[in-house]
Predict the 3D structure of the following.
Amino acid sequence: MTDKPSFFDEMYGFGETARAPYSAYSSWFNQEDVARLRKKSEQAEAFFRLTGITFNVYGVEEATERLIPFDLVPRIITGREWGILEKGIEQRVRAINSFLHDIYHRQEIVRAGRIPVEMIARNDAFLPQMIGVAPPGNIYTHITGTDLVRTGEDEFYVLEDNARTPSGVSYMLENRETMLHMFPELFSQINVRGVSQYPRSLRRSLSSCRPSICDGPPTLAVLTPGIHNSAYYEHAFLADQMGVELVEGHDLRVVDGRVAMRTTRGYKPIDVLYRRVDDDFLDPMTFNPDSVLGVPGIMDVYRAGGITIANAPGTGIADDKAIYSYMPEIVEFYTGEQPILKNVPTWRCSEPDAFKYVLEHLEELVVKEVHGSGGYGMLVGPAASKKEIADFRAKLETKPGNYIAQPTLSLSTVPILTKAGLAPRHVDLRPFALASPGGVEIIPGGLTRVALKKGSLVVNSSQGGGTKDTWVLED
Amino acid sequence: MHLKISHTTSYHYDTPVPYALQQLRLRPKSRPEQNVISWDVTVDGGQRQVSFEDEHANRVDLISFDAGVETIVITCEGEVEVTDNNGVVGKHTGFTPLWLFNRTTKLTKPGTGLRALMSDFKKPEGDLAMLHAMSDHILEKVPYSKEQTSSMLTVEQALAAGHGVCQDHAHIFISAVRQMGYPARYVSGYLMMDGTVEQNASHAWAEAYVDGLGWVGFDVSNGQSPDARYVRVATGLDYSQAAPTSGMRFGDGPESMRVTLVVEQQQ
């Protein structure tokens, strides 16, 4: 590290000596032989292949199952830093659930003029079928994956609130498992908070959201679209870890006023369904009639109070990228507090002045599709060629309302292990929050995604990103 | 007016149906202008699974067919006391925002046919006069025809056909007045006929929202606003959300449907 880095490195800050949270790890690392670690890295990959943790890439011809590359240098967060993130996420999750309840009931926030009505009225993520529906405990986002980025010692921003069906938690668990397996000595030297309780917490949290019709121990199940889904591994993994059934739409039907799954002893009613099927495909009688992935009639049973669907249908209105820009207002409106975590300044291309600014500054901005996900269809101005910018400009001009733009953030880096030793790469962080009537629980850790290409700011696994274990220190 | 209604819908399938579900929107609610004295829905060949209120405050019953049935009979029987309120249904209630009723749906999507219809419409002054004139204009351009098409038509298909049944009229009206900025909705219900236009199925009309008055009904097919002979059962953005029956079934054998409907005045 000869040049002074222009990005905040979580291991070295802006300097050359390890920051306090990394000091123990750094002294361990410095005594290690890089060749041995490289070998360990190969072992880790073999370990992942063995457990079958893979994902599919969309939009690529001959999409095949791929392994998400794993880097063995952990991302380390102090207990103090985590405390702030935890409070901030909890505040945000509470606000999001209040917002969803309001949007599907009186829409006070619209009446109060804090959000323009068009943001809801012209938004496909708003599901009229959820109007007046109050899910058990008024919990809509049983699981939230909040995407955070860091730009400095105390600078964290929320990039996105994944309130639909956030994925990636299996990597959080598997990455830790792998690290424990490969470097047990590290964990005896450094006090890292555990994450392995996640499946138990998830099960407990979902169980506490059971419908009032359920008067015994609740029956849970995980609904997957099937083996062709990119996150099928995770669906199967979570069902297994929670000790509940993994089901597909065709395993379920409406029996005696409940949604029930086929078992060897007849149909068994499900109380809480952790579904990993998107809203549109959930029920062909209520949403997309062509869907064969869902369960006909499940929305009727849901609306009659016969089942809990996690996350609730219609939560997309809260994590929509255009709504995102109103999150500071949303947090303040429902909690009466100032947001603890910052939002990234956002230009809404639907607004003429903002759009004009965006067109004039495309080279500097990140432009995202309002309804897109997974890093598809976005422009990273500083990294794009002249032609890419011109092509994007043409797309942008046909439908400005479909896009938002943000400044290119100086994402923090964490070193990865390369042939030449450590080299900084940009990272983000997705912690997972569980909401239930008892409160919000945030697992100390999360999914750290890392852009493996030097200088790249796109961390999505579909765009060549990798993952790291995320350590929250007990301090 | 005290109306006695008996409405039977029967489905027959050539091959036994292994599994099927149907949503029934067949329960009228008491409102200022209509008092539901009694109402029963019975299903032969199926079971009521759940009942809930949808976003339009319709009471919906989800029924499942008994495994292997070939015939399902849904019977509604009841008595309703209706008062004439000149078609005025009144203020908007519930959580569903008014702006939702300006949304375009598949069935009510305007195209060249609707634009043509609207271009030669002479718009009188005043909301009510304008809405009545639009209703008359539609009936003139698309006369009523008993010839019921087997499938549900979109607004553009109905306009192209040049004639229509009550569903088509309601859809065209909804589509046209939404274009002019009025929230509008589809209504399914019953009409006691007295020789004007013969109906052999349940009836449909439209409602538009007028500032100050609230929701007002327009029965394009009969050139009038609903009176004491109309029983309002379900509403929605279009037919698909207010249909008396809708559902899905496994198995693709042919089906036939028969409706008998008696609406009579009880003295």
Q: What stands out?
A: Residues 105 and 132 of chain A are 5 Å apart (CA to CA).
